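Subject: Sanity check before I submit

Could someone independently write out the structure tokens for this chain? I want to compare against mine line by line before I put it in a report. The sequence has 371 residues.
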Amino acid sequence: MRVLHFYKTYYPDTWGGIEQVIRQLCVGTGRLGVTNEVLTLSRGGPSEIEFEGHTVHRVPLDFEVASTGFSFSAIRKLARLARHADVIHYHFPWPFMDLAHFMARINKPSVVTYHSDIVRQKNLLRVYSPLKRRFLRSVDTVVATSPNYLASSPVLKRFAHKTRTITYGLDKSIYPVASEELKARWRAQCGERFFLFVGVLRYYKGLHILLDAMANVDYPVVIVGAGPIEQELKEHARRLGLTHVQFIGAVEEADKAALLELSYAMVFPSHLRSEAFGISLLEGAMYGKPMISSEIGTGTTYINVDNDTGLVVPPDDPAALGAAMRTLWENPQLAAGMGRRAEARYWELFTAEKMAQNYHALYQELAAQAR
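---
Independent answer below. Compare away.
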């Protein structure tokens, strides 16, 4: 079986959460006999590379409007690659993708993973909504990434008759094992106990809320990642006089694994529904860490169950976030128990093997219907 994934960005150009999901899907279903290809846009020229057993086709990005990449050559490439695919797997949101689907005249079985509602660009959303609804009507199946998101998304409710839930999953075996030397280096820099955030530094991650919370507590916090508001956050930290918050920047996978292993707990203050799941939060659970997150009606609270695997606080509430950090910091036994339950929940619900099996079954179902 051949499956073609279509999304605006992918490895090795970008390393975000959706890219990680597509990667885990390709690797996991590849073990089950699926031949995966990924079509994506790139700021470089056209190229084709092999990555972890699947083929990545990169076509030039022509221009961007409101963070939506456009590529005329992607439409032609999508049409050509789709001829040899059994299933087309789209990854929403990306308005150009909807347009390309129709312009390439795709008539193969199709599934769209609905990663997130469009939250921020409300004016453009009004213009885009008719195309979005037509696109979602045209695909065979819509996949929600958590029961929480399915229950809270007005868009998914409209397409509930064709929507099923398949949660994200991670394969711990493909994460590098950090050497003792590497861990010792990070321990020397970050200390024996610290809260950890990992992610792209974007507006919806709520890191300004975390910084405001840290103005009243002095626990060490390590922030891993780069992104469009990095300088803004660093300036905010300087204004608050925070000396116990470290901005590490983007790191290699081995360094991330070391920091995940060494951390005391994960703090994940995303406060808007643009954070539909939280892959780095799931990574924390995979490494057996207690978690702090906000209740925003998305998959974050499916990963992190309040008072079981960690603590869940109201969004955009620095005082509540600081109090939750204090609770975990001052109660190591409570934190350790939550971390153990977080890891157990990962193994029960969120492995890449389980995700791959569920998608493989869906691919087979769609292909059989087409035949």
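---
OP: Matches mine. For the report I'm noting this point. The chain has a mean pLDDT of 95.
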